[in-house]
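Final report, results section. Input specification for complex C-07:
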Amino acid sequence: MTTAAHPFVERNRDRLLQELMDFLRIPSISTLPEHKGDVRRAAQFVAAALRDARLENIEIIETARHPLVYADWLHAPGKPTVLCYGHYDVQPPDPLELWESPPFEPSIRGGNLYARGAADDKGQMYMHIKAVQALMELHAGKLPVNVKFLIEGEEEVGGESISKYVPANQDKLRADVALVSDTALYADGIPTLCVGLRGLVYTEIEAAGPARDLHSGLYGGAAPNAVYGLIELLAKAKDSNGRIRIPGLYDRVQAPAPEEKASWASLPFDQDAFLHHEVGATALTGEAEFSVLERIWARPTLEVHGIAGGFTAAGAKTVIPAKATAKVSLRLVPDQDPEQIIRAYRDWVAANTPAGIRTEVKVLSSSPGVLVNPAQPAIQIAAKAFSDILGRPTVFTRSGGSIPIVGEFAQHLKIPTILMGFGLPDDGLHSPNEKYRISNYYSGILTIAHFFERYGSAS
Amino acid sequence: MTTAAHPFVERNRDRLLQELMDFLRIPSISTLPEHKGDVRRAAQFVAAALRDARLENIEIIETARHPLVYADWLHAPGKPTVLCYGHYDVQPPDPLELWESPPFEPSIRGGNLYARGAADDKGQMYMHIKAVQALMELHAGKLPVNVKFLIEGEEEVGGESISKYVPANQDKLRADVALVSDTALYADGIPTLCVGLRGLVYTEIEAAGPARDLHSGLYGGAAPNAVYGLIELLAKAKDSNGRIRIPGLYDRVQAPAPEEKASWASLPFDQDAFLHHEVGATALTGEAEFSVLERIWARPTLEVHGIAGGFTAAGAKTVIPAKATAKVSLRLVPDQDPEQIIRAYRDWVAANTPAGIRTEVKVLSSSPGVLVNPAQPAIQIAAKAFSDILGRPTVFTRSGGSIPIVGEFAQHLKIPTILMGFGLPDDGLHSPNEKYRISNYYSGILTIAHFFERYGSAS
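Structure output:
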């Protein structure tokens, strides 16, 4: 099966790659204040690409932090409207020394494009724009469906601005379905729709002990140590089996339905390859009574993303540190309420802070987990379009990651979201040497264009 | 009671202070490779000061790392020989933002001289040189005792070079007693000799989990986290009462003699002031069944001096970190054998490293604890000289800090060490805003000169 977009992609292979590489050269790291100007440049790049694709009503919408980009094309009366979402911001690239080519100088090796944001999410959101452009060119400025684009620059920092914008602009954003490409194929060549996401509560804990760093000889044995106090606290968060010890945390956790678990069991999951080629550690960890897929897709987790305190330069310094901080997140599964979890977490920190230590918790972001019903007609059409292009039946999976906007669309716009991603499990999102498979970039453009075609002709 | 050095100190008050400030301006941070040249400059400064004091046979002795400085004056036949030891290197000044004046721009406030190294140990070792200079001036180039100086630049990084030099140069360094000023008065105005020191084993633990930083959404729940693994390991090192859980660690720990404990109980120790004015935390911690002085002077401790791993910049990054490191030390009490402790510690790390994590231990330095018998004649003479100058009876204390050279002198030169320090408990050694009380700088010069006088005339 083919799509009318095929000739466009064939004709423009080089240009499509060069444009994406230009996009990837912009270090739009949303969490780092020194890159604020780069984030804006990326927004302007997106707006220009939307213009090239003949979209209309293009806006760069100012927010408290990084701009949103909006565009639409609404000249297909009687046809459904697809709200295309993506993000143009990226994670910080550190640790820099582990990159084989610089993170913001895209490099092609072995059929992959290496750059920060290649898969997450610049390479994927750009496919939406190119799919529209392909159809516009082939159909003399017409599309088979109506489309709206809403693209943000704060996805990697909690998406605060878009989560204010969506409820305040429900009419403007009205659509039948949202389309998001920020997930991965289950494996290369397997068309995959993601129907479940975990939520995320991201926090910072600051611990304070003595008023200043103390000499460990003169005070060691009687003075509290902020680093050790934080270690003692955090070690209590999970048992050795990975089960979180925060009271109430599992209250609303539901097991996946038996059919869903059965379909996961039928996926070609190779635990050895997962351990050795993806994780690269000596052993997997976590709740042994759950399968690995269930652990990463359908169980809450607590992770310490970073910790800092005391003397960490080369050599020796014998201080009892006055302060320490850790970045700690909880991944939530559908039905868990972020507000209730935050309360339970704060109570747990307060109750478990060791003597002599003061702790303060800051919540940097929070979002609930999401489940999408795969029986929704738009999801079924997307599954068919995907199968048409890749030539295999579409599988339904979950992702352990978080895309908070999916919950916002469900809550405020009352629409389901198609999570149609073209990444691969080993793309290295948030890691050094992030990559995107170039063949999947092209097949993504084709699949999205074909979904628009099928969705338009189904109605 | 007075000393012949009084007029010298009175006449040279300003000059003595300016010279010390010049010395403190040299950032001789021995642990940081970028300050290697500064450490050498400090050695040259010391050599020049020894020359000004009319000492002889001055040498800057090259070592594998930072130079030693030697000098002597041996023209008092029949009189005892004092080996004066000190160190001209300093701790790193970070965290810099907590200093009220820059660490290497000495600043006088409230009768104190603020600078890194003011008390530890530049301000104190310089007193030895000035005491010699005072007596030389007053006695036409003669001293009441023979003196040798051996001053190092690696005290803050484990003292490896001097610990090789001393056993290889036993004849050259032969003396009757060593004199070290690197400790504190028990309280301002109380003459204090320290007769016990803790030893130190300083280590670094590196933990590795996944091969690269992983996305915590996609892998969280099944992949090991190097930061969390290190947290789990370190949290097992002590119970909530501060007792170290490393098997065998307490095997050779001796309680202080009843008389020593009784004398400590008679010291004016104000636990509230210690907590609020020195430590500045909400509570003291550690082994509740021991007094605070016993905890810091006569009990082993384990401290984490610093920890680093994962994402620690501003904002949010959802990684499962691949690596983490911690600086961990053990303070040892006399009779504990550093080699046995290192073996026990390594075994404990290996046995307690969580699944999926690999750990590596590096030992940066090690030294045993030391006890000096206060009944030694030289110690008794020092106690009298101290009382003479400060006008109160001398007290005998221990310090929880470590001065490894004291053990080396005992082992290789078979001499006791007089630990005659003039710091104060709140001097902030190793902390921001380290200071040295200027009046104690002057009374230190007088006391040391007077000790030389008394020691010379006693024999």
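The first strand of chain A starts at residue 56 and ends at 61. The radius of gyration of chain A is 23 Å. This concludes the modelling results for the funded period.
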